[in-house]
Amino acid sequence: MTVYVDLVFLSNLTIDASILMTTAKVRHLRPRRRRVALSASIGAAYAAAMFVTSVPYLYSFGAKLMISALMVYVTFGYGGPLKFARTMGSFYLVNFATLGAVIGISSLVKWSGSPWRGIAFTEDGGMVLSFDVQAFMLAVTLGVAIWLYRSEAESRESRKRLEALVVDVTIRIGEREWSCRGLVDTGNRLYDPLTRIPVMILEASLWRDDLPIGWADRLKSESADRLIGELEEAEGGLSAFRDRYRLVPYRAAGGSSKLMLAVKPDSVSIKDPAGKEAACVHRRVLVGLDGGSLSSEGAYRAIIHSDLTLASVEVPESSPQTA
């Protein structure tokens, strides 16, 4: 078998650089490109050295650990024992995940028939897995593996950031209460123009059985003022809602002005799901109704106005305000 050392060096250079950059993405670090190139060169030279030198302990566990530590140090620096250990752990995690994906994808695409065809047994009872992959297949599977790993890591971080903004919301009208999850939106600056009361957004489907028949679905396509005009003829609506309806003007994404159907509740309670903060009770608030779904995954059913966050001043229950 002919082995081209230059190809071994270049292929390992590319692989090591990709793994280092993926590790940087996972750890939210921004190393210099020349440091990544130098570190990848160390790893590639180490892989190619087996074909030009014969040192018994060069590829022992301790030597491999030292080379890995050197690569991480050259790329990211030291930064203290805890930070360095975490970076080393992420580096190995990316390595293992990438290698497993490369082997799995290659086996899925290339192998056919019995899986025992690629397994051989030695005289002393050992088992040898024969794994042969072409350079093109290696490059493709490596790229797919790194893409899958980075996509999953980014998705996980996005979910964590989203969960940090999700709160428990309880809306009270009379003796009735409705609870759901809400997303705190710092960009939501919707107010009633006359009273300057903040408006939070709620999926109308949450009140499907309490609104007049059909309103929850009709809000998707029909204007709110038309529904209000039919209020006297509508049946099945909660009687306590009749004097609580409001029309709030707002500007849609296309720039056109529209009216949103809103309800004046007795109070809205907002609480951190983790229980780290006491619940804030707000009475000066309107609940605007949206006919669609606010979250495609159902993670939340309300959009919380920025003035109603946990940092807002709690309104005492003894001093109610009405719109």
TrEMBL record:
Transmembrane segments: 36-59, 65-84, 91-109, 129-149
A Pfam family matched in the record: Peptidase_U4
Taxonomic superkingdom: Bacteria
Alphabetically ordered keywords of this record: Membrane, Transmembrane, Transmembrane helix
Annotated protein name in UniProt: Sigma-E processing peptidase SpoIIGA
Organism: Cohnella hashimotonis
